[in-house]
């Protein structure tokens, strides 16, 4: 029996990847190398500091830890200049409708995101009140594909992992859900998210009825 849905944020409820891209690209240019949209794919679902390492690997440079932290902070300030101006019309199609439908059926809702900016984004999108629990990058120590973020979400909601369905757009997120013993709906394409129990192109393709068929 499904009692809870756990949602990743970036790429599932909102498309923040383009803001991350602009900010990482500006940093790469400052450091003297190119960073493409294809490179940006590698950063999806990945923590900020791991993203920093991948970016520097692409540029073929390395810095001491302190310098990397300073650069990541600067990138984050640039990124925040975009997300602090986000509007509810940036919520991806179908998200609000699906969450409302779940609530009507007494399904609990949690966020499970690697982002330390999740609360800012939820507030800007006026979505905060819909979530019974928020587990974000400030509350976890192990990054996806480790299941920590989703297990903490289930615990906060008072449900067992096998009563949860996770919605994820990143391969590492799908792996995290499966490692946690949860069902997973991939948001994207089966080529990348083939291990999920179901793959849809967006939450607009979801319904309570489809969710119920997962059990
Ligand atoms: C994930 C994004 O949700 O959050 C990643 O998919 C991002 O691209 C990560 O790096 C960390 O985000 P933030 O907001 O803490 O820098
Ligand atoms: Mg994501």
Bound molecules: 6-O-phosphono-beta-D-glucopyranose, magnesium ion
Give the CA-based shape.
Answer: globular
Across the major sheet, the strand order is 3-2-1-4-5-6
Q: What percentage of the residues does DSSP assign to strands (E)?
A: 5-15%
User: Regarding quaternary structure, how should these chains be classified?
Assistant: single chain
Domain count = 2
Report on this model:
The chain is an alpha/beta fold and 215 residues long. The chain has 2 domains: 4-14 and 89-212, Rossmann fold; 17-83, Putative phosphatase, domain 2 (DNA polymerase, domain 1), CATH 1.10.150.240. The chain contains 10 helices and 6 strands; from the N terminus they run E-H-H-H-H-H-E-H-E-H-E-H-E-H-E-H. The chain has a 6-stranded parallel β-sheet. Helix 6 links the parallel strand 2 and strand 3 (133-135). Bound molecules: 6-O-phosphono-beta-D-glucopyranose and magnesium ion (MG). The site of magnesium ion has 9 residues, from loops.
Task: Offer a concise description of the structure.
With 215 residues, the protein is α/β, with parallel strands linked by helices. It is built from ten helices and six strands; from the N terminus they run βαααααβαβαβαβαβα.
Keywords:
single chain; alpha/beta; Rossmann fold; DNA polymerase, domain 1; 10 helices; 12% strand; binds 6-O-phosphono-beta-D-glucopyranose; binds magnesium ion
């Amino acid at each position: 029996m499904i009692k809870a849905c756990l949602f990743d944020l970036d790429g599932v409820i909102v498309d923040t990847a383009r803001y991350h891209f602009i900010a990482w690209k500006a940093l790469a240019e400052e450091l003297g190398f190119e960073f493409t949209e294809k490179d940006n794919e590698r950063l999806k679902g990945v923590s900020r500091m791991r993203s920093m390492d991948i970016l520097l690997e692409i540029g073929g440079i390395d810095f001491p830890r302190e310098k990397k932290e300073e650069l990541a902070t600067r990138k984050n300030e640039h990124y925040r200049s975009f997300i602090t101006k986000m509007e509810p019309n940036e919520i991806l199609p179908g998200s609000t409708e699906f969450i409302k439908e779940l609530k009507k059926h007494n399904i609990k809702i949690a966020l499970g995101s690697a982002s330390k900016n999740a609360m800012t984004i939820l507030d800007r999108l006026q979505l905060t009140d819909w979530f019974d629990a928020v587990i974000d990058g400030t509350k976890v120590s192990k990054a996806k594909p480790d299941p920590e973020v989703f297990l903490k979400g289930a615990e906060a909601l008072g449900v067992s992992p096998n009563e949860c369905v996770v919605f994820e757009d990143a391969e590492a997120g799908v792996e995290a859900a499966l490692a946690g013993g949860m069902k997973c709906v991939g948001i994207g394409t089966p080529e990348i998210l083939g291990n999920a129990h179901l793959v849809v192109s967006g939450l607009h393709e979801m319904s309570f009825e489809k969710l119920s068929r997962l059990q």
